Amino acid sequence: MKSPNRPRISVVGSGRCSEDVSRQAEHLGRLLAGAGFAIVCGGLGGAMESVCKGAAAANGYSIGILPGTDYLEANQYCTHAVATGLGPMRNYLVILNGALTVAVAGGYGTLSEIGLAQKIGRPVIGLGAWPHIPGLIQAKDPEEVLGEIRRIL
Fold it and tell me: What pTM does this model have?
């Protein structure tokens, strides 16, 4: 049975992404779930859907914190969806509910989440994301992300 009390990792990334980023996010979701972590994300498409898909493939647990008011808008792989009605302000809740944040590529929405994580003292690991931000830990692949998570936690 999937447990909601697993350690949580926030995963942020674009709502639309390339096939390469999608594959990396899916692999990351599979690795995180296999290592016993629950995933917190924005719950929609792109990198968020891919990380949830990977977690689902490993019988994992994902929490999607949605910008809209309908929890049914979550991607099909998200195990638990939370509607907020907050639009992009929900990004703070995505960050707040993980022990650390992994940024998978992404645009300015992802950048805002990186900034929020750093503001509240959460470590951030970048996987193809914003390499010039001070304090952002860079990882070359999902395996290295998992290694960094284990080192930090």
Answer: 0.95
